[in-house]
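for ur thesis appendix - HTH tetR-type domain-containing protein. copy paste whatever u need, i formatted it the way the template wanted (i think)
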Amino acid sequence: MLAMTSTEPISTEMPKKKRPGFETEMRTAKERILQTSVRLLHRQGFHNTSVDQIISEAMVSKGNFFHHFKNKEELGYAVIESIRTELAKDLANLLSNRNNPPLKRLFLDLEQALSDEGRLRKGCPLGKLALELSDIHEGFRKKISEIFEMWTGAVERVLEEAKLLGDLKQDVNCHSLALFWVANTQGAMLLAKSHANAAAIRSQIEHLTGYLKGLKP
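the 3d part is after this line
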């Protein structure tokens, strides 16, 4: 039996080449969208930030936005991942720095927050999203929870290091102490934002210093 032949014409056109710099432009546009979104969500929250506002302030077209993100929800996940990436860098420095004893590294990390008054006035982006989204979006809640677990785990490792060096009693529960540290830090940053100054964090450092002194052997 003879094979049937197609009557459709065979295209002889070569695939169109993308103009030079196209990929770089797309990557740059996506970065602008993401950076603008992080800034706006930090300042005014997820629900008060519209796609149109992001497009306007990022100076991209609507088509460009939807080329990179299907919808605002997908962008929300990207923003949370961006926050996770930045925090992971800070925690990596906390864990790898061997120039100071472990407990001093924790306090230096807190004191660094005091040097950025603008950041204090805006509050913690992770805490802000947790308060706004955890009760209404399970997917966002899980991602935010994972970031808090990452933060708590890093603090716990530093506390375990302090215990090995004899800076903490052997019966100290480092996991519970790490949870206390993270919760205390979040509360202090919330108060610092509410009062528009760093007094809450300074007070926290003083009280944590006294508390940890009581946990020394």
